Amino acid sequence: MNTPRETSASVLPDSLCYLNGEYGPLCDAKVSVLDRGFIFGDGVYEVLPAYGGKIFRLEQHTARLERSLGELRIANPLRAADWLAIARRLIQAQMASTGAANQLVYIQVTRGVAVRDHVMPPGLRPTVFVMVGDMKPATPEQRQVGVSCVSADDFRWQKAHIKSTSLLGAVLARQISADADAIETVMFRDGFLSEAAASNVWVVKNGVVMGPPKDHLVLEGIRFDLIEEICREQDIPFELRRIGRTEVLDADELMLSSATKEVLPITTLDGQPVGHGAQRGRPGPVYERLYAGYQRAKAAQSI
């Protein structure tokens, strides 16, 4: 491997990556400045968690990648077996380099390189990029006491179901919580819960786990179906519907879910403790059951 390269902000890692059919050091990977992913954000991505070298929910992630590519009219450049082979090679290289058991696989596909024009040019070769990094999970303290979040209006576009590389809206939303020293920004569109900047949001009331419906206003996280499966196993009522801001503020429990957070309790929202009675401001019993079910699902994976 080459020596890691310094930039003004950090040192770029020299970990192995994949770019357009070739493997090489991440710090040396380059694409054209006319790549439409660079010019327009005209591309999609996926982030796959891997535990102990095994990719979690691979089929669901590749299916969502296919859906996002379809929305952009980009043909999937690789078969599922090819994505798996690339990911496995990078995971093994990363584990050998850092010793970390758990990884995140980042996949990005853009429309490709062309002279700048808003219209989608046909026949381009998609740019395919894959990298892997060590996972940074929630800390034991965050799981024990929960995390703080802030709320904001959802100012992003109305095709949130596409996992697009055009993430300026998410960047601005996440900065709102970073400026407030909070973990996430819980967003509302027209008074109804949508999602957080980089997570889905779950509401618990009277023992029922609720989330927003699967539509174009939210990115359907891989954990949508997983949490529903865990609820079914645990006999926990589960419901997807429009959830008003007052219901969120009056929730018994609030939770985030994402590839890195898995499922994580929100115990403070906009400076106010979440919940009621003795559980106010503390991780709740439904969270504990969902988190335990999540760990069982991880242990049962085979890919």
Summarize the topology.
Blueprint: E1 5-6, E2 11-12, E3 16-19, E4 22-25, H1 36-40, E5 43-51, E6 54-55, H2 58-71, H3 80-98, E7 102-110, E8 127-134, H4 140-145, E9 147-153, H5 168-179, E10 184-189, E11 192-196, E12 200-205, E13 208-211, H6 223-234, E14 238-240, H7 245-249, E15 253-258, E16 262-269, E17 272-273, H8 285-300
Helix pairs in contact: 6-8
Main attributes of the structure:
alpha+beta, six-stranded antiparallel beta sheet
Describe this protein's structure:
The structure is a single chain. The protein is of the alpha+beta class. The protein has eight helices and 17 strands. The strands form three sheets. Strands 9, 10, 11, 12, 13, 14, 15, 16 and 17 form a nine-stranded mixed β-sheet that branches. A six-stranded antiparallel β-sheet has the order 4-3-8-7-5-6. The longest helix has 19 residues. It is globular and about 60 Å long. The relative contact order is 0.13.
